[in-house]
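I have been asked to look over a protein record a colleague put together. Alongside the sequence sits a line of tokens, each denoting a local backbone shape. Please read both lines and tell me whether the tokens look consistent with the sequence. Take the sequence as given and treat only the tokens as open to question. I have pasted the whole thing underneath without changing anything:
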Amino acid sequence: MGHCDYLDAPRPGLRLITEGVALDLAAVMLADPYAREVLARENAPEAQQRIAVRTAIRLARPA
């Protein structure tokens, strides 16, 4: 599962995003103000949503 699945079925908990790498995408989204704002907008284009999620994942740091 990866960032694309997050848009369709957001849920807390770890998700394997690549071999050996798991993230709690819900926590990643909560920690990124821009991603939260984009995903909250009803009229945000899907491409912008995907970019916001992808960027939040790339900027994520371990707790």
Q: What stands out?
A: The radius of gyration is 11 Å. The chain has a mean pLDDT of 83.
